[in-house]
TrEMBL record:
Keyword 4Fe-4S: no
Protein's name according to its UniProt entry: Agmatine deiminase family protein
Keyword Magnesium: no
InterPro entries associated with the record: Peptidyl-Arg-deiminase_porph
Coiled-coil residue spans: none
GO molecular function: agmatine deiminase activity; protein-arginine deiminase activity
Gene3D superfamilies from the UniProt entry: L-arginine/glycine Amidinotransferase, Chain A (3.75.10.10)
Species in which this protein is naturally found: Cognatilysobacter bugurensis
Alphabetical keyword list: Hydrolase
Top-level taxon of origin: Bacteria
Any one Gene Ontology BP term: putrescine biosynthetic process
Length: 348
């Protein structure tokens, strides 16, 4: 690994969390009022611990978002807006992947293709460039990379180990073998180990099995993952197999990972369509973990598991049932920005 370039773990200090406000020209249009309530709750939770940088499509959207957040008594001293166009609000996948580079940063700007061409993504593919032009970042250089990779497809322990899924990367790059993909990811992301999961998926997930819906590092020697203990559920075999894969993985010094299995929510349907309700789609912020809850009996048990996995952080539930209507959850709509990358006081 390079001594001057490093991919920090999510639990390392952050300067802000980046989100994009939903509006009538996004896919949220049919349920805009409902999803706005989720975004208000999310911004309120983020700003308890650090600033939120909110992308807005134009001045009208900014004025509206400001009014809604202010009326909800969100700490507006910790909210900063950046105006730029975007197709939708899944910033985990269209936002910057930040590497520390000495005292500065390298922002990896991978191609965003709308999850393999499933959705229009031309504006989102230019989001990182737009944020750079808006002077959001300090001491950072942007590196465009002509390779499709979404932030939700990868997870790092901050010490050179990357966790990802074969289903997703193979779907994006069907002509590239695993060894070549491992080498490319390791070189770009400054990793020296790439751990692949061959099992695990969620119905209603159109990302082709992003790892952030399935399994996440909680520390360099521990992994939190989405389990399924219902043999009658269609996910049972795949998630049990994924659990066995995780149990077989080893840390850098050859020890098994400490594993924390999240409970399984009962099926949530929308007009008969199964929605992807994953508790693994949590967001780590300064001093806390923001966790998705779905109004299910497993919510409290999931909170207990995360409390055990992150004993030094407050576990903050955020109601995310409206989010899964569009096949993602809390982590999918956010991107953490490492400490020092953003001077939030300088953003208009």
């Amino acid at each position: 690994m390079s001594n001057t370039l490093r991919f920090p773990a999510e639990w390392e200090p952050q300067s802000a969390v980046l989100i994009a406000w939903p509006h009538a020209d996004t896919d949220w249009a049919d349920r805009l009022g409902e999803i706005e309530e989720t975004y208000i709750a999310l911004v309120a939770a983020i700003t308890r611990f650090e600033p939120a940088v909110v992308c807005v499509a134009d001045d009208d959207v900014q004025a509206y978002a400001r009014a809604r957040l202010s009326s909800a008594r969100v700490d507006m001293d910790r909210v900063r807006f950046v105006a730029l166009p975007y197709d939708d609000t899944w910033l985990r996948d269209s936002g910057p992947i930040s590497l520390r580079m000495g005292r500065g940063f390298r922002l990896l700007d991978f191609r965003f293709t709308g999850w393999g061409g499933k959705f229009e993504a031309s504006l989102d593919d230019r989001l990182v460039e737009g944020l750079e032009q808006a002077s959001l970042f300090e001491g950072a250089e942007r590196q465009p990379i002509d390779f499709a990779l979404e932030g939700g497809a990868i997870d790092t322990d901050g010490a050179g180990t990357l966790l990802t899924t074969w289903r997703c990367l193979h779907e994006r790059h069907p002509g590239v073998d695993r060894d070549t993909l491992s080498t490319k990811l390791a070189n770009w992301l400054q990793q020296d180990r790439v751990l692949w999961l061959d099992h695990g998926y969620l119905e209603g997930d159109d990302t082709d099995a992003h790892v952030d819906t399935l399994a996440r590092f909680a520390s360099p020697d521990s992994i939190v993952y989405q389990g399924c203990d219902d043999p009658t559920d269609s996910h049972y075999a795949e998630l049990q197999a994924m659990g066995a894969e995780l149990a077989a993985l080893r840390t850098r010094d050859g020890r098994p990972y400490r594993l924390f299995e999240l409970p399984w929510a009962q099926p949530i349907l929308d007009d008969g369509r199964r929605l992807a309700a994953s508790y693994a789609n949590f967001l780590i912020v300064n001093g806390a973990v923001l966790m998705p809850v779905y109004g299910d009996g497993a919510d409290e048990r999931a909170q207990s598991v995360l409390r055990e996995a992150f004993p030094d952080r407050e576990i903050v539930p955020v109601r995310c049932r409206p989010l899964i209507w569009q096949n993602g959850s809390l982590h999918c709509i956010t991107m953490q920005l490492p400490a020092g990358l953003v001077d939030v006081n300088a953003i208009e």
